Amino acid sequence: MIQRTKISRKRLLLIYSTIILIAILLNSLGEVTKNSIASNCVSTVFYPFRYGWNTMRSFKNYREENLRLKRELANLRVVVDRLLKYEKENERLKKILNFKEEKGVSLLLGEIVGRGVPRYSGSAVVNVGAKDGVRKNLPAIVPEGVIGKVVHVNARSSVVQLITAPGFRASAMDRRSRVVGILQPKRTGQLIMSEVPLTEDVQPGDEIVTSGLGGVFPKGLRIGYVVDVSANPDRIFKNIEIMPFADAAGIEELFILLGSGETDSL
Q1: What φ, ψ does residue 100 adopt, rounded to 5°?
Q2: How far is CA 157 from CA 2, 127, 150, 153, 250, in A?
Q3: What is the pLDDT along the chain (266 residues), one digit of tens a residue?
Q4: Of 41, 73, 84, 134, which sees the most CB atoms within 10 A?
Q5: DSSP character for 188?
Q6: Which residues lie below 8 Å from residue 70, measured CB to CB, with a gap of 6+?
Q7: pTM for the full model?
């Protein structure tokens, strides 16, 4: 214990002596040298604090810059999405305009403003009506083909029963073999052509068009193509599945066919 006390005293004496020596040396130095040493000492002592402060400021600046870049990126994405939307809309409208000009028949363009009218399942509401020349049972078409028929007319709007609606029926014909059947929808969004005898010639890939029978659709309007033909020996009719050319769920506009007569060119 006494030995440890002596060692501690020697250490204190050494520290005091060192401090006194440093003080004498500093006192003997010039003013410029003193200021330089003092400045270096202060810089050394406060360097960790200064470094930490600068690091925090840099982190804050980086974070603000990151947020700014994210905002700019989000704005650019919005602009790009709008441009793509306008481009698609422009292409669709060009297609509609070209279709109307090419066919040379009386077509009335209607915009779909509603869907799912309670009284008419699977229907769409368009913004043209009796004052525009629309009448009940007029065909509704799009550039791809038949899309439905008018089932109700108001002064400024009409209800179109779409080709995929549960109650839709139309007389259809195989363009190649001229075989006629009754067109009706399936729950899958496809169509079937019923009442076709087993002996009739209908093949997958055949194009199906309106037959002109029934007094609603003129002859030759495109409907779809055959995707499957099957026969049950216990039945007298074939099972014919058809994929429609027109997408009833995705359309935004349609044409009401005001003219009449055969339309093999459509």
Answers
A1: -65, -40
A2: 112, 5, 11, 6, 20
A3: 555 555 567 776 777 666 666 666 656 655 656 566 556 665 665 566 666 666 777 777 777 877 888 777 777 777 766 666 656 666 666 666 565 555 557 889 999 999 988 888 889 999 999 999 999 999 999 989 999 999 999 999 999 999 999 889 999 999 999 999 999 998 878 899 999 999 999 999 999 999 999 889 999 999 999 999 998 878 889 999 999 999 998 899 999 998 654 444 44
A4: 134
A5: T
A6: none
A7: 0.63
